[in-house]
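Troubleshooting log. The previous structure file for this entry was overwritten by mistake, so regenerating from the original sequence record. Sequence copied from the archived sheet and checked twice against the printout by T.R.
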Amino acid sequence: MRIGELAKRADVSRDTIRFYERHGLIRSDVDPKADNSYRIYAEDAVLTLEVIRDAQAAGLSIAEITVFMGQFMAQDGETHDAQQFLEDRITEVTTRITASTRFLDMLRQTKAALARAPQDGLREMSKAKPDTGKKGQGSDT
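Regenerated output below.
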């Protein structure tokens, strides 16, 4: 498939695809059927782009994703310890999930407190309302 179709199917821009290609995250070949230099991408490029998007959402950098994809494609197994790399990424993502969950709980608690605050505040104001009687104002004549 050509870049336009890949971009549409993966819901990313053409520039994003070119960026990932420059970083070696996806590959293309010259279309042998075309008389120009149009590039074609394999069907699995859509899945690769989804993996890249998920990895970025989990907080991995492009450099880390490049190492991960190299490990995943078994192209870079000798230069890095794949098990340790994956274990480190699992630990990082787990830590981020824990922190995000804690922050989400705080947001929910704050929202609930704000939803109660106006009613609680009105009750407190009612209890502390000063006496509005007319004593001492000289209007009893």
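Residues 100 and 106 are 10 Å apart (CA to CA). Archived copy saved in two places this time.
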